[in-house]
């Protein structure tokens, strides 16, 4: 050691090692490892299973007094399992019996699945052949080791259909797209499905039928005829005919018009036909409740037929009482019936005929058919024009009545502008009507 000036004490040597007494003359004694004699337990013989049994895949549990290191949790990594270390100075122990070797199953690398779906961008193509080639590349992923994407294949095919593939084009076969090398796609074929002819709806009878089918055409002809003629083909009208082509020769020169009169004394088949005609008349005139259909002793029904098709109908009633009807303001056309008034409640007249309903087919309203059938009914009752009254006319019926009676009542009701005669029941009914008629000495 170096001696510093001014002092007889030796300076201490700085070191980072542990201090050891170097003056010790005794040698350190070596420690001997204590050996624990282990008792070896004989294991039972291993059970053998058939190769086809599922138990052959599992190893038997090792029975020992001390736990084996391979008994650890299978989920723990092999790096975390460490053998207990012994001092480096102690030699390895030699056992009298051979050591028990445990077989550890070889752990396969974990298969990492991707949770993010992978899709391919399908470019919009105008050419169908390029699109089929693109589909072929997609389908070949199964053969190139990308089988985990095979679940997305239907979605890709749907995207490919949206990318410009026509609806009626057939899908490419698997033989064409399975080999992506070299082969050109086959020609696209178009499959035309023929569901049959166009279905038409008849505007008259509202029957749906196919003109290309003979059965549909025959069914439509039968139903159309029944709808138009109302079942008049099997009815004999000779006993109820009152005129043939006498009034409507100018309307239908090729097919004469037949006029029939139906009442309570007519044959049953004729009355049934007249009832079907009244049902259609009530539907078009607004009698939706089904009333005014029966034919009784008060009503007579006159029907005009062209080729057994009813084109006009009038329902008339026998002798009754009527009251004059006049208009408040004749200079304002288009007025409704509500703006008109009766001349006087005491001015009541007895008439031989009253028009209850008057109907003309819409295709025959320009041929003066309503005027002709009204004159035919008036001739059957033998009355003049001023002796006819109307009951509850519609707006169109009121306009027709005003034109029919124009100038007829000027000499009978001067300076009153009488438009028509209305049925008394439209104003007074029941007991009041009876009292009024008795007071006027009409009954």
Describe the secondary-structure layout.
Elements lengths: L127 H12 L13 H10 L11 H4 L21 E3 L6 E3 L3 H16 L11 E4 L12 E6 L5 H18 L13 E8 L2 E9 L2 E8 L12 E3 L6 E3 L1 E8 L8 H13 L6 E3 L4 H10 L13 E6 L7 H9 L4
Parallel strand pairs: 10-11
Antiparallel strand pairs: 1-2, 3-4, 4-5, 5-6, 6-10, 7-8, 7-9, 7-12
Structural summary, described in words:
- By secondary structure, the protein is α+β, with helices and mostly antiparallel strands.
- Among the domains are: 128-177, no CATH class; 199-229, no CATH class; 238-439, 3-Layer(aba) Sandwich (Aminopeptidase), CATH 3.40.630.
- The chain has 8 helices and 12 strands.
- It starts with 127 loop residues before the first helix and ends with a helix.
- Residues 350-407 form the N-acetyltransferase ESCO acetyl-transferase domain.
- It comes from Rhynchosporium graminicola.
- Residues 77-102 have a biased composition (Low complexity).
- This is N-acetyltransferase ESCO acetyl-transferase domain-containing protein.
